[in-house]
Amino acid sequence: MANKFFVGCVCALALSLSACGKDKENEQRLARGCEAAVKVMLAKDKYDRQIDQVKSKKFGMSDGFKLVTIAAVTKNKEYGYEQDESFDCKFEESSSMAGFVWSASLVQLKIGEDVYGSEGGEIFGDMNDQMNLMDAVQAAMK
After folding, report:
1. CB distance 40 to 121 below 8 Å
2. Where are the domains positioned within the chain?
């Protein structure tokens, strides 16, 4: 009986340790997804800048969603001057027990005061924006 308990504890520890490693891997996937989302939206004529370099990534929680903040250097498309800027993405994550199956979808992207996705039960951005965001995020998170 003690052996079964010991084996069970070892298995549980191994599963939790593998889930920890998966958490870091999943955070990197989310960061790639967020960066792709920002790039897709900044490519619109509405914006005069693009991401030149990602400096850092932070992960947290906001309103029950995984929050990814990307600090980047953006470059003006026409004149080339640079500035530091931050972008926030909220993701809804789901996973199976022990994190073997994981998925995430972008809930919201903020570029300055502009919101894409949902906020407070309201949808922002048109259907093309939503489709472009979904495609870019899913491709980047593979």
Report:
1. no
2. 19-140
Interstrand relation of 82-95 and 102-111 (parallel, antiparallel or unpaired):
antiparallel
Which pLDDT tens digit goes with each residue over 10-34?
A: 333 233 334 445 889 999 999 999 9
- Report which secondary-structure segment, H or E, holds 83: strand 82-95
pTM for the full model? 0.82
- In this structure, which long-range contacts are made by residues 87-95, counting pairs with CB atoms below 8 Å and at least 24 apart in sequence? 87/34, 87/38, 87/111, 88/62, 89/30, 89/33, 89/34, 89/37, 89/38, 90/62, 90/63, 90/65, 90/66, 90/117, 91/30, 91/33, 91/34, 91/65, 91/66, 92/65, 92/66, 93/26, 93/30, 93/66
Name the 3-class secondary structure at 46. Answer: coil
Tokens of 110: 């903020």
